[in-house]
Design brief:
The complex is a heterodimer of chains A (about 160) and B (about 350). In chain A, the strands form two sheets. Chain A has a four-stranded antiparallel beta sheet with strand order 2-3-4-6, covered by helices on one side. Chain A has a two-stranded antiparallel ribbon with strand order 1-5. In chain A, α3 packs antiparallel against α4. Helices cover about 35% and strands about 20% of the residues of chain A. Chain A has a single domain, classed as Alpha-Beta Complex (Outer Surface Protein A, domain 3), CATH 3.90.930. By secondary structure, chain B is α+β, with helices and mostly antiparallel strands. Chain B has two domains: about 150 residues, no CATH class; about 190 residues, P-loop containing nucleotide triphosphate hydrolases (Rossmann fold, 3-Layer(aba) Sandwich), CATH 3.40.50. The termini of chain B are far apart. Classes of the chains: A alpha+beta (about 160), B alpha+beta (about 350). Chains A and B meet through β2 and β3 of A and α7 and α8 of B.
Chain lengths: ~160, ~350
């Protein structure tokens, strides 16, 4: 019986996994477009990011289920720069995932990708991280307190 | 214990005060009552806000701020009984829907604000423990918490004006923001602030003077403002703090209370002879103003961030590459104001 369950359930998990990897913009972030440039703020951590160029179009396609499909589509729009685009969009998507701007989820229900107009001109993609404030944010000094709960180092 | 109960307990202690002094302020056409039983705290906190003090009226105040020392109260105040306050004074795990708390656990001071009561409270164990910088931007966090429901935003920025039209001068510490403001003040421009200003968001964006105290690093003082030394307020302490000046007393004719905002300048020390201006993107302006402001003012970040997006999207922005030649710094600013502000 156990073997039967194993053979019935496992393939369905694998099948589901293959079908439903979803890339989507982290809903906890504030993302705005100014003059064709994305500014993405993680107001909880004090980290800010900006994305310029063709990678803006890649973000506009979110949520999507197949990253290669979106990157191929954008790369094929500008055949003369196809190779460069493949490299820069793959690299920026990795950065976006690493910084939890784009999240991957293999349990979400499949959502239809947005249809977007493709850009008419290729502009090289750039990803910037503004982390000036983050070191200060992590400051959390250890302190001793008196009977009323106040820090005693000042005394 | 929830935050509302904690606030109410503190307010109960304060309302039992036998006597106290009230100063009335007018900030961006809104009346504020500052109440304290402590003349020592009043001596520390009122000077930076002195320009806002008005004669007493019967008008209803829109904000009341109580500021007290432990010895003023009948009972000792317990520290906020929650863990999780970060270095910025913010606690993300607390429900702060009505009552908001700013508490840096290594300090014996506390800021509370109740939205529903429009009341702020500042408590310190003893006036000697008030950090010197706190008095240069008195009750900044309470003003910030108050603005959540107002079309207004405190911005970490200077602002200078001419003929009622102002530029916001913003950037992180060390960008040349304060020095540029104070140099322009000396050259005859109107002063609205060199560190924090109040920006009012309506059809026209206006800037109001929030604090009248200027601060200068010792090295900068020696290099550029040594003639101001006789006017230093904190003569005993400025070498290990910053030199503090009462700008309204120093340049009474240059002091204005508000102006229409026309542009954002993003200063950078450019290590070049001459100062120049270049058009900057809205994102660059937002990045010069938002991270630093939201670091100092950690509550209601989304609300404030959206207001700063509005400010940066409605105004033109310029990189301001600061050169060494002082005379050209002033003359180039005159040309910039004439071309980009007055004639537009």
């Amino acid at each position: 019986m156990k073997f039967l369950i194993f053979f019935l359930v496992l393939p369905s998990i694998l099948f589901k996994h293959q079908l439903f990897i979803m890339y989507y913009l982290n809903p906890r972030l504030a993302a705005e477009i100014f003059d064709g440039e994305y500014i993405i703020a993680n107001l909880d951590t004090g980290l800010y990011f900006s994305v310029q160029g063709l990678a803006v179009s890649m973000i506009n396609f979110l949520p999507f289920e197949t990253k290669d499909q979106v990157i191929d589509l954008l790369a094929n729009t500008f055949p003369e720069n196809s190779e460069t685009i493949q490299k820069e969009l793959t690299s920026i998507l990795e950065e976006l995932i690493e910084n939890e701007i784009v999240l991957k989820d293999d349990l979400k229900t499949l959502v239809e990708s947005k249809s977007n107009t493709l850009p008419i001109k290729y502009v090289a993609s750039r990803f910037n991280k503004y982390a000036d404030m983050q070191d200060l944010l992590l400051l959390d000094p250890i302190h001793d307190v008196d009977e009323d709960g106040w820090n005693i180092k000042n005394e | 214990m929830n935050t509302t109960l904690y606030f109410d307990e503190v307010l109960l202690l304060i309302e039992a005060l036998p006597s106290f002094h009230t100063d009335e302020l007018l900030l961006a056409n809104r009346k504020i009552n500052l109440c304290t039983p402590s003349m020592e705290l009043r001596r520390l906190f009122l000077p930076s806000l002195q320009h806002l003090v008005v004669n007493k009226t019967d008008n209803q105040s829109e904000l009341t701020i109580w500021y007290v020392e432990e010895k003023d109260l009948k009972q000792k105040l317990k520290a906020p009984p929650w863990t999780g306050f970060n270095g910025q004074g913010y606690n993300a795990s607390l429900n702060q829907e009505d009552v908001q708390i700013f508490f840096q656990p290594w300090q014996k001071q506390l800021f509370l604000y109740s939205k529903s009561k429009k009341t702020g409270i500042y408590w310190v164990s003893d006036s000697h423990f008030v950090p010197w910088w706190e008095c240069t931007f008195s009750f900044r966090i309470i003003f910030h918490l108050w603005t959540q429901d107002l079309p207004a935003q405190l911005v970490h920025s200077g602002a200078m004006a001419k003929n009622g039209e102002a530029v916001l001068i913003t950037g992180k510490s060390g960008s040349g923001k304060s020095t540029s403001c104070l140099n322009l003040l000396r050259a005859g421009y109107n002063y609205l602030g060199d560190d924090y200003v109040w920006v009012e968001l309506s059809d026209t964006i206006k800037v109001y003077t929030l604090y009248q105290t200027g601060k200068i690093e010792t090295e900068n003082l020696e290099e550029r403002f040594s003639d101001w030394k006789p006017f230093i307020i904190n003569k005993q302490d400025y070498l290990h703090q910053k030199a503090i000046f009462d700008i309204k007393n120093l340049y009474p004719k240059s002091f204005v209370s508000s102006a229409v905002l026309k542009a954002i300048l993003l200063p950078t020390v450019a290590y070049q002879e001459y100062t120049s201006f270049e058009t900057a993107s809205q994102i660059k302006a937002l990045m010069a103003m938002a991270p630093t402001t939201l670091h100092h003012l950690p509550h209601n970040r989304t609300n404030s961030y959206n207001k700063m997006i509005m400010i940066s999207s409605k105004l033109s922005s310029f990189d301001w590459l600061l050169g060494r030649d002082f005379n050209q710094f002033i003359s180039s600013f005159d040309v910039f104001i004439s071309n980009e502000i007055t004639n537009n």
